Amino acid sequence: MMAFVRSALHMAVMVFTIIPYALLIVIASLCGARSDTLYRWAARWLRLSIDAARAIMGIRYQIQGLENLPDGATSPAILLVKHQSTYETFLMPAIMPHPIAYVFKKELLYVPFFGWAIGKLDMIHIDRSQRAKAFAKVVEQGQALLAKGVWVTMFPEGTRIARGQRGQYKSGGTRLAVATGAPVIAVAITSAKCWPRRAFIKHPGVVDVSIGKPIPSLGRDPDELMREVQDWIESEMQRLDPEAYAPKL
Fold first, then answer.
1. What range defines the domain where residue 113 resides?
2. CATH number at residue 109
């Protein structure tokens, strides 16, 4: 019962705080605010949601591998992240030292307030029904963002995957890396221990985040590079959350 109450309270905090933040971002963008200013405001709301999850629901995170992130104001990187829940979509901008840009389906733009706000940010929204055009847009916008020091972030499994399971890894992220020459950084995260996919009720605990070493992309085959990313993420997930991967009796 308490888990339900805490989850409902956290949801209420997110719903009521997204409205002023989203309106601020939309209005400021119409008034000509800089993209980095809009991003900072969006990241503040995401950090607020993560902090509220800790304070209200007891969900904390711990990070390994921050030293693996590239140095330099404009050092490029493409982050390929394990996707188990909404938690990591909020957490990544809150913990990364660079602005990040998600690649996401355009349908999210129509979500009231949240979608209106992200539509004003330097993100890459695509029409999945037009694969060739969508990837060309990812490369074009990705190159421009990487040149500014914005790290392009993708979930190679494409959708949230249940705890202890592996989705089908798609090579869009590594194709972008090879096309731009940016290194790939794989990220494993055990968010489903506390925040299961498509679940309203969340549970207290620790979410482990592990950041891998940069993997050069120059001259690599995208499919072979994605297999390397997949192998690292999935082996790291088993190390971080062995209970989820234990053989079923």
1. 2-244
2. 3.40.1130
CA 199 to chain centre: 18
Dist CA 83 CA 166 (whole Å): 10
Q: Which residues contact 12 (CB under 8 A, 6 or more apart)?
A: none
Residue 48 tokens read as: 């607020």
In a domain, 193, yes or no: yes
pTM of the model: 0.94
Nearest to 241 by CA among 150, 142, 132, 164: 164
What is the domain count for the chain?
Answer: 1
- HSE at residue 239, side-chain half, CA atoms within 13 A, is 10
Residue 142 included in any domain: yes
Question: With contact defined as beta carbons under 8 Å apart, do 151 and 77 qualify?
Answer: yes
Element (H, E) at 60: strand 59-64
Examine residue 249 and state whether it is found in any structural domain, yes or no. no
42-76 residue pLDDT tens = 999 999 999 999 999 999 999 999 999 998 888 99
| Crossing angle of the two packed helices 2-30 and 35-57, in degrees rounded to 10 | 170
Phi, psi dihedral angles at 61 (to 5 degrees): -135, 155
Residue 123 has phi, psi (to 5 degrees) of -120, 170
Alpha helices, DSSP H only, in the chain?
A: 2-30, 35-57, 87-95, 114-118, 131-147, 172-180, 222-240, 242-245
What torsion do the CA atoms of 231, 236, 239, 244 make, to the nearest 10 degrees?
-80
